[in-house]
Write a structure and sequence with these properties.
With about 475 residues, the protein is of the alpha/beta class. Helices cover about 45% and strands about 10% of the residues. It starts with 10 loop residues before the first strand and ends with a helix.
């Protein structure tokens, strides 16, 4: 008899066809027919792998996606009936499902019908031990969130996404109630959650309070996203304080991903709370602080906190934070201090100028074996020829100094056509689209002669601190000299 290790894993069911298809009852029945064929074929494979044993009791499917379609109430009932009824002499398909993607399934529906569809789908998983639920991209109000109660009150739930739902503060309150309730004394759902995503909602300051209430009960989070929620300064204070209290108390020690984009950490209290929280995140790999109003001083403190916690950060997004040349220096210092571990750096929509770009470029020389960086995003940063040539120099001949680089984005800056040509030759297909480049001038034309002199001095000083050696210093100075006479 074949070993259990050879038995095929449960399959995932997905609707066929194009996204945004309108699904009526007839199409839903087509889905059921197709899924039945797939499941029976899989059952046969399971039986064959088990040496002919009866596969009717096996878990044939453990994941399902209903996303990207718009279902009528009748179509939803057809799908739900298929999931909850016994399947071909065995248990229901729903009984084995642990991950349900119910996102984007009511687009264009009137409110009443949309609520019926959501309730029908969610109720179909009454017998499931759901671990992962995605309800994103559905217009969910306070009434509709009640329609999703069956999946939101699963004690087995660990990962939840409610993004782009238009959640109000009141609706967030309902979600918080369900996730923090402990009516049976066995612990609340929040205590077991490893992922929680709230993005692009309109919950405001009140929603931040409800999120803080959820976070207070979480102890095992690995992935947090709370961004684009119209938090404002007061709401961001609440979020930062909740994170600080949670992380510094030793909760959620395994946090690997943190997305707080579009919050406003400009108040001293929220700013300091955020820094304390970041200082505990030794396992952090992904950090998004885009559009957080940090400015140069905030960037300095963030980079210092990341260095102090000694995390193996791979993705850092500091875009849209009014970062100027001084902030770029702090980012460059972090690039040196992190030991070449960072793979993705997004710093677009800032005011770095070529002076900042030179500092960043110089930092990449600090790794003797070549930096790990795979993607650099520096769109719309007021960079000109000096910065472009510094980045080319940092890349090295045939990319030998940045061997892992796969993509560099420099769109929306101001390079003359000959400089664009140099970038294209150096980076080849690694260079992103340049359709928004201003080729009529050069961003460096706006630098005064004094600033240009400072540029060269600061670049040489930055290079002198790196282990790249005298050759790297000479190369950068030479690149800058050429830029200044263009």
């Amino acid at each position: 008899m074949a070993s259990s290790a050879t038995i095929p894993a449960p399959i995932k069911l997905e609707p066929p066809g194009e996204e945004r298809d309108f699904i009526d009852e007839a199409k839903a029945r087509e889905y059921v027919r197709l899924w039945t064929e797939q499941l029976l074929a899989h059952r046969q494979s399971v039986e064959e792998a088990g040496g002919g044993a009866n596969g009717t009791g096996a878990t044939l499917c453990d994941r399902i996606s209903l996303s990207g379609k718009s279902y009528t109430a009748e179509a939803a009932e057809v799908v739900a009936s298929f999931l909850r009824e016994p399947f071909e002499g065995g248990p229901s398909i729903a009984r084995g499902i642990v991950a349900a993607d119910i996102s984007d399934c009511i687009a264009g529906r009137m409110t009443e019908e949309g609520m019926r569809v959501l309730k029908t789908f969610c109720d179909a998983f009454a017998e499931s031990r759901l671990v992962d639920v995605n309800l994103s991209d559905n217009a969910i109000g306070e009434q509709a969130i009640g329609a999703c109660r069956t999946v939101l009150t699963k004690k087995t739930l660990q990962r939840l996404a409610l993004c782009n739902n238009g959640l109000s503060a009141e609706t967030m309150g309902r979600v918080a109630d369900m996730l923090t309730s402990d009516e049976d004394g066995t612990g609340c759902i929040a205590g077991n959650m490893t992922k929680i995503h709230f993005y692009n909602n309109m919950s405001g300051e009140g929603g931040c309070k409800e999120f803080a209430r959820i976070l207070e009960r979480c102890t095992k989070l690995e992935d947090i996203r709370f961004s684009g929620t119209r938090a404002g300064k007061a709401g961001s204070d609440i979020v930062a304080s909740a994170l600080d209290a949670s992380l510094t108390d030793g909760h959620n020690p395994g946090l690997e991903r943190l997305d707080l984009a579009d919050n406003v950490f400009s108040n001293k209290a929220s700013y300091e709370a955020l820094l304390r929280a970041l200082g505990t995140t030794s396992n952090l790999k992904y950090l998004n602080l885009r559009d957080c109003d940090l400015e140069d001083d905030g960037i300095k403190s963030i980079c210092h906190a990341l260095f102090e916690c000694d995390s193996a950060l791979e993705h850092l997004d500091l875009s849209g934070n009014c970062v100027e040349k001084q902030g770029a220096k702090h980012i460059a210092d972090y690039l040196r201090d992190c030991g070449g571990k960072l793979k993705t750096l997004h710093i677009e929509d800032n005011e770095l100028t070529s002076r900042g770009a030179v500092s960043i470029a110089a930092a990449f020389h600090s790794s003797e074996d070549g930096h790990s960086i795979e993607e650099i995003q520096m769109n719309t940063c007021l960079v000109g020829a000096i910065g472009a040539r510094a980045l080319i120099d940092a890349f090295g001949p045939d990319g030998k100094d940045l061997p892992n680089l796969k993509k560099i984005h420099l769109n929306g800056n101001s390079f003359a056509e000959d400089v664009v040509g140099e970038l294209e030759v150096a980076f080849d297909d690694r260079l992103g689209e340049m359709d928004d480049n201003d080729s009529d001038g050069d961003a460096d034309d706006d630098l005064s002669d004094e600033e240009e002199d400072d540029e060269e001095e600061e670049t040489e000083a930055a290079e002198g601190e790196s282990p790249a050696g005298d050759d790297a210093v000479d190369d950068l100075a030479d690149a800058m000299g050429k830029s200044l006479v263009v």
